[in-house]
């Protein structure tokens, strides 16, 4: 076989076709339920090897050639995590499964109260953080193509590298779309892909081992020889930079947990928690094997390759230079495998996030969510996944173009690591610390992200691409402490360590402080408890016996939130609608949606959704947990509404007490006034009766005329007294409501006629003005009482109208179901401040010569109230004016 470029392309395509077949077969087997072997710990462990990308395959040798053993840190971190943090991984996997987590963004957002904003934010960081990494794969595949092409004398000069990169990106996008979005799985599992990347893991390991064996035994002449060469090489003298070692080990450990693609294979694609146990030793072993020959290849490569060759390509160029074309081809396939497996999984993971957290919410929002249950949603999801994959790879290509494709592979990889490592505080805090809050996660992520972008991502494009050299040396706008490589004026730290140190410090600090200062929502707390105590909650057998059993649980929960009556009514109604007897309907999607809406009114949409979803999904929360939350909420709501009701009641009682007190005071004052008035009113006639009767009794010498006069006075006073007593009696009867009304039908003009003649107004010099035509109104009322009111008003005009030629206008107006009768005289009227007062008992406007005890208008008011009407003073009429209002007779009003 020759290293012909055409052959190379053919081999590539053949290899891809083979992988596709593997994936296809695996999926078929899984679909038929015969895929038990797919779920072996070995496959799981091999799938984890996507951690080792083209960076590892090509870059590690380059790294070693440049920086000695430092490349080991990249393996040290994951190894430490796998061995030392096994329990954290197990927790992540358990949470991932019980909460049906689909991505790292989903996990973080679920933990912090299903925050959409947080999900979008994490997704964006993940996309931005992974972009350099994808660029790295493009770069290495492109470079490997170029290396082979250079060694191929039959091929013409290779056209622009960029074109190759573009083709590779497009090819990978196509490949990923074919692989990753063939169908949709509710749990986002991709058995076929996992199987394919497991195969790729074997290929890349074998390829690297083969090159290593060739180098050690074929070129170098054995183990002893090789070790001697290593000792003699510059590699052996590299000094270990402690800060960089610590920083990079931490970084690779963090990235191992937070890289979206690692999360995808480790958590999302995990079938069985127990696989972790195998992986915890098998994966470090894999890492050891794959890094075994890195140093020999680097050392030998530096020796045999001409000065200035790219050490990142030694794995490929060393066999090529020795004419080992077959080995070179295998090596190429190993690199190709590393790159493709990483890109495929990363693109799938990112596409899931972008589609779930950005594209779908927007689409559902735009379309009003109408297609939620219909089948076409699946098409939309698949389409949005495919689009997202294309976009993600497009970004990778763009980064490759922008960064010029010249940077060392390792450097690019580390930029990526540092970006996604920003998830670490929110992720670990979320699963280990119940007090962690959404605000804390947001603050921490934002701070870390901003520092990462400024100190690492933007500078990674190179000088003067995004950040000018002046900014590096003097800071933006001359602010020295903002220099990207010397934040806060602290200089001399390795840029990588510098960025990681500051970003993680601010991220973790901000996260902790903001979490302590903010208050979590109930859903956040629920989720927090679920995540942190995942081992207490899950693992119990979930025996959901079927629809009705779930309905019963839903009913129990609904009763606690809605109250028994409402919940029972809701359930019974739904059951009836489904044609079932009793109170328990089938939990159909319709009913669940309805129930959620009902519950949402009490506990909020998110909580309602979580509660119903968790009962139905039977996922994590035990019914007891849910009930505890429901109880708590119900109690809190009940308590607060009881408190509110109590305080309202207290306020009402206080108001009533105050009013009653005021009234009592008033009544007491009135009673005193009334008593003194009565005694005064009674005493005056009594005094004169007594005086004149004494004169009559003692005065024997009185002439008959005087006798008659005195007797007349006594008689008048007695009549006045009687009238007063009559009025008082009348008033008291009216006020106590003991009056018997004599309702009759009559015409208003007759009543007025009667009142006019009874009051004797026609003879008393008072001119009356009437419009008899308007008075033809039929009334159903106590006509005698009504005329008593009229008589009083006419008599008052007679008594108090002080005009030279007194006149009284009686104006009637009927309409709107009532009749008004106005009595307007042309006197000086009643002053404003007395206008309401005159209706009170014993109220008289001033000391009048004529006039009664001030009971007349009070009686009128009482009578009108009994007749369902009213009497009021009518101001602004150029004289005293009283308006009597009466309801119109029913049959007339009805006409
Ligand atoms: P009285 O028995 O004194 O007439 P009323 O209750 O009928 O008592 O009237 C109360 C007071 O209202 C009278 O004392 C008088 O001062 C005033 N008043 C009533 N009608 C008129 C009127 N037409 N013009 C002026 N003052 C009036």
TrEMBL record:
Residues 677-890 form the Histidine kinase domain. Its main location: membrane. The keyword Phosphoprotein applies. One of its GO terms (molecular function) is ATP binding. It catalyses: ATP + protein L-histidine = ADP + protein N-phospho-L-histidine. Its EC number is 2.7.13.3. Gene3D superfamilies: 1.10.287.130, Histidine kinase-like ATPase, C-terminal domain, Sodium/glucose cotransporter. CDD domains: HATPase (cd00075), HisKA (cd00082), SLC5sbd (cd10322). Keywords: ATP-binding, Coiled coil, Kinase, Membrane, Nucleotide-binding, Phosphoprotein, Transferase, Transmembrane, Transmembrane helix, Two-component regulatory system. Belongs to the sodium:solute symporter (SSF) (TC 2.A.21) family. This is histidine kinase. It comes from Lacimonas salitolerans.
């Amino acid at each position: 076989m020759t290293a012909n470029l055409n052959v190379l392309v053919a081999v590539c395509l053949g290899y891809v076709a083979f992988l596709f077949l593997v994936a296809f077969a695996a999926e078929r087997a899984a679909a038929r339920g015969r895929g038990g072997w797919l779920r072996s710990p070995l496959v799981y462990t091999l799938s984890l090897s996507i951690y080792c990308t083209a960076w590892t395959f090509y870059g590690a040798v380059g790294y070693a050639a440049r920086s000695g053993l430092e490349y080991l840190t990249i393996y040290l971190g994951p190894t430490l995590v796998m061995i030392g943090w096994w329990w954290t991984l197990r927790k992540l996997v358990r949470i991932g499964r019980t909460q049906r987590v689909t991505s790292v963004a989903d996990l973080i957002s679920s933990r912090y109260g299903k925050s959409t904003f947080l999900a979008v934010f994490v997704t964006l960081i993940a996309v931005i953080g992974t972009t350099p990494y994808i660029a790295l794969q493009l770069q290495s595949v492109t470079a490997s193509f170029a290396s082979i092409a250079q060694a191929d004398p039959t091929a013409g000069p290779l056209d622009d590298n960029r074109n190759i990169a573009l083709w590779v990106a497009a090819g990978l996008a196509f490949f990923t779309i074919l692989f990753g979005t063939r169908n949709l799985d509710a749990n986002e599992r991709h058995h076929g892909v996992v199987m394919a990347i497991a195969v790729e893991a074997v290929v890349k390991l074998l390829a690297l081992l083969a090159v290593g064996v060739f180098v050690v035994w074929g070129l170098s002449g054995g183990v002893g020889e090789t070790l001697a060469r290593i000792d003699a090489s510059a590699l052996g003298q590299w000094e270990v930079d402690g800060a960089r070692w610590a920083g990079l080990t931490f970084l690779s450990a963090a990235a191992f947990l937070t890289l979206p693609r690692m999360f995808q294979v480790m958590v999302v694609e995990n079938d069985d928690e127990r696989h972790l146990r195998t992986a915890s030793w098998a994966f470090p072993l894999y890492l050891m094997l794959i890094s075994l020959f890195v140093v020999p290849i680097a050392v030998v490569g530096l020796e045999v390759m001409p000065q200035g060759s790219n050490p990142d390509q030694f794995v490929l160029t060393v066999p090529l230079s020795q004419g080992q074309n077959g080995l070179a081809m295998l090596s190429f396939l190993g690199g190709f495998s590393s790159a493709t497996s990483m890109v495929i999984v990363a693109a799938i993971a990112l596409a899931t996030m972008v589609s779930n957290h950005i594209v779908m919410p927007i689409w559902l929002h735009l379309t009003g969510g109408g297609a939620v249950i219909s089948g076409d949603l699946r098409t939309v999801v698949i389409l949005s996944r495919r689009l997202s994959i294309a976009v993600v790879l497009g970004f990778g290509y763009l980064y490759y173009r922008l960064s010029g494709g010249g940077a060392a592979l390792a450097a690019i990889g580390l930029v990526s690591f540092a970006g996604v490592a920003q998830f670490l505080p929110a992720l670990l805090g979320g699963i280990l610390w119940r007090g962690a809050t959404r605000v804390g996660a947001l603050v921490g992520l934002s701070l870390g992200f901003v520092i990462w972008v400024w100190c690492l991502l933007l500078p990674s494009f190179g000088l003067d691409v995004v950040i000018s050299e002046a900014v590096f040396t003097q800071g933006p706008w001359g602010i020295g402490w903002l220099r990207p490589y010397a934040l806060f004026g602290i200089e001399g730290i390795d840029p990588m360590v510098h960025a990681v140190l500051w970003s993680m410090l601010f991220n973790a600090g901000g996260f902790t402080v903001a979490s302590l200062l903010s208050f979590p929502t109930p859903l956040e707390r629920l989720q927090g408890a679920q995540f942190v105590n995942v081992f207490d909650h899950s693992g119990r057998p979930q025996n959901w016996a079927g629809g009705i059993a779930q309905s019963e649980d839903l009913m129990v929960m609904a009763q606690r939130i809605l109250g028994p009556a409402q919940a029972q009514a809701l359930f019974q109604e739904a059951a009836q609608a489904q044609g079932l007897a009793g109170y328990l309907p089938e939990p159909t999607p319709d009913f669940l949606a309805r129930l959620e809406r009902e519950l949402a009114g009490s506990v909020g949409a998110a909580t309602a959704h979580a509660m119903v979803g968790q009962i139905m999904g039977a996922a994590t929360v035990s019914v007891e947990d849910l009930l505890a939350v429901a109880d708590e909420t119900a109690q809190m709501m009940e308590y607060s509404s009881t408190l509110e009701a109590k305080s309202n009641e207290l306020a009402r009682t206080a108001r009533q007490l105050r009013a009653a007190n005021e009234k009592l005071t008033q009544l007491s004052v009135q009673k005193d006034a009334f008593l003194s008035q009565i005694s005064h009113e009674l005493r005056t006639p009594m005094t004169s009766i007594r005086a004149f009767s004494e004169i009559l009794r003692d005065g024997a010498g009185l002439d008959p005329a005087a006798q008659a006069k005195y007797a007349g006075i006594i008689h008048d006073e007695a009549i006045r007294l009687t009238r007063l007593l009559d009025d008082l009696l009348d008033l008291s009867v009216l006020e106590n409501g003991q009056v018997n009304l004599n309702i009759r039908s009559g015409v208003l003009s007759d009543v007025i006629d009667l009142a006019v003649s009874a009051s004797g107004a026609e003879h008393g010099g008072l001119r009356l003005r009437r419009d008899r035509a308007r008075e033809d109104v039929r009334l159903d009322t106590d006509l005698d009482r009504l005329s008593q009111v009229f008589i009083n008003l006419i008599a008052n005009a007679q008594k108090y109208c002080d005009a030279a030629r007194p006149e009284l206008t009686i104006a009637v107006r009927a309409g709107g179901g009532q009749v008004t009768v106005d009595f307007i005289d042309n006197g000086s009227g009643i002053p404003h401040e007395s206008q309401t007062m005159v209706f009170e008992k014993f109220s008289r406007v001033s000391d009048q010569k004529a006039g009664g005890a001030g009971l007349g208008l009070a009686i009128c008011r009482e009578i009108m109230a009994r007749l369902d009407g009213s009497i009021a003073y009518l101001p602004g009429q150029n004289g005293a004016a009283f308006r009597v209002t009466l309801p119109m007779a029913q049959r007339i009003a009805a006409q």
